[in-house]
Amino acid sequence: MKEYPAFVQSIAPEIKSFRDSQVAAVAIEEKRERALLTEWESAKRVVNAPTQVDSHASTAYVRSPIFANIWKINVETGNTIVSKTQVVVILKSMKSEINVYPEESGVGRKVVEYGDGIGPGAAVRPGDIIVHLA
Q1: How far apart are CA 41 and CA 129, in angstroms?
Q2: Which residue has the higher pLDDT, 45 or 91?
Q3: pLDDT for the residue numbered 47
Q4: What whole-number distance in Å separates Cα of residue 75 and Cα of residue 98?
Q5: N or C end of the chain: which has fewer CB within 10 A?
């Protein structure tokens, strides 16, 4: 143990050089990761740009509450929503299942159609129309 401080002192310039190169490499990687994140976020904004327009003025909707994938659709075209506790769609996000219920205004209405591109496995964002009710 007596020799350890002398050994550390003898390699101090190498340690400093290694630490300096390590700091420089981390700075380069952080800059590259920030650029990649910015590129990914801008591409994601383009892909997830709202494309759905409420074209049915008297229609009620069941909308996605979160970013998720559709796991299961429990209603078919022509079905009637019987209660506000009826699970219309089950979403999957972060290994969790999220039940989606109709709003009170949707009770007693019939399922007219699914939203654009909606089906099992489809990705949805908060506010996306999953089901049109009339």
Answers
A1: 23
A2: 91
A3: 54
A4: 16
A5: N
Question: What would the two tokens of residue 12 be?
Answer: 């101090």
Whose tokens are 């020799």? That residue is: 3
User: Does residue 54 form part of some domain?
Assistant: no
**Is residue 69 pLDDT above 90, yes or no?**
yes
Please name which of 106, 118, 122, 107 lies closest in space to residue 52, comparing C-alpha atoms: 118
Cα separation, 64 vs 12, in Å, equals 59
Residue 59 pLDDT > 70, yes or no? Answer: yes
Contact 131, 56 (CB under 8 A): no
Q: Does 55 map to a domain?
A: no
CATH code of the domain containing 125: 2.40.50.100
